[in-house]
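Hey, resending since the last one bounced:
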Amino acid sequence: MPIAFAVILAYLLLLPLVSIALSRRQGGDPAAPHHDLPAWAICLSIVATETSTLTVVSVPGVAYGQSFVFVGLACGYLLGRVIVAAAFLPLFRDRSIVSAYEILGRRFGSGVQRIVSATFLISRLLAEAVRLFAGLLPITALCAASFLPDIASPEGRLLLLAILMALTLSYTVIGGLRAVIWSDSIQLVLYLTGAFACIATLLHRLPPATLHTAFAHAHLFSSGKPAFTDPFTFAAAVIGGALLTLASHGTDQLMIQRCLAARSLRGAQAAMIGSALLVGVLFASLSAIGVLLAARDHEAPLAAPDRLFPDFILTLPPALSGLLVAGILAATMGSLSSALNAMTGAVMGDFAPILARSRLSPRVLSRIVTGFWACALTGATLAFSGSNRSAVLFAFSITAYSYGAVLGVFLLAMTRPQATSRAARLGFWCAILLLACLSMVRLGGRPIAFSWLVPAGALGGLAAGALTDFRRKRLRP
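The structure tokens again:
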């Protein structure tokens, strides 16, 4: 399909050039922190950052049998992001902050800051490698089925990984955070446009009676299932989703870095709340595709839900098919560039005294660090290619450990003004231990839903830290 190939090639060539051009227009050192980006661009970047290929491919498959449950999850996200905007973002008023964990360093000392930052770096490396490996599978399948039959081989996947990494690294290193945010904005618009085009195509192909059947039983939440094992029940989606958002958007360097680039606190808050509404639109559009495909197939059982959307893409006209494959590539490159930039920011902000010994300029250091993480991600992705375990479940378990423990330390800093560094450390490690235990628990043969692990770890860590602080006060002569 030369048309589809031309669309994808044009995207891969133009995105780095446009991103660098937009970032250079504002001038300044791309390695330095800046606070001059508009709220709407940050809003788009937040949604693109939290969206991966797994999201684009998997949500239609989930909606095929469970309707609009991801939109219900977005309700919890909205509640959580309102709290983040009101209670967490004001903590980062200081314009000199580079890393989200500098707040903990000022409160508990550099030791706690570096422990938490190292946890972020390790968990982000592993989780992003899993997402990248899992995301390459549908991309290579689509390319092999349409215009590059040899790409599905191990050598072909390695070549595709190298191309994506090189292109992403180019604009990430040259343009810095500005280029990443502008590229995220372009990428989100691309795969939203592709999703809307798919909906329009299905609406045109399906008869009105089928459409009525498709949406007659639409629902936002699962019912009749245990709340602690199904992430889409009302309690798990709204309460668990809100608490999960406190960790993922209120304490994680990946999201805080974007908010720090806003022109003002009010702009960062608007971007944070707006991102919840926008991710709801994205979930709704991807879910609508799954619901319409279920109506088309008369809700026949799916053997492989994650194959639903890629298989449908192959039935579309070449230009639209190429646009959607480019959209999936966009999701992969967006999450990858965001991870590289956030990990570099964490190293530059949290380990600055160590890096200062090299006597290199911040610009050179940041590029070296970004290149290091690109190599590390490539190596970790190749390592996961030989694993037989579920990539998605492994990625979820990794982020649960990081988010729960880090949120507990932040909550301790916010609620216990006199808590010591020892209390913070103990609370952090207690949260890790608690999450390790909970990950082995089975309720009715099913693991605890991911949305509950984060609040459990955060509240456990907060309780352990607060109890340590309370005992210190009681024992003080």
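The radius of gyration is 22 Å.

Sorry for the duplicate.
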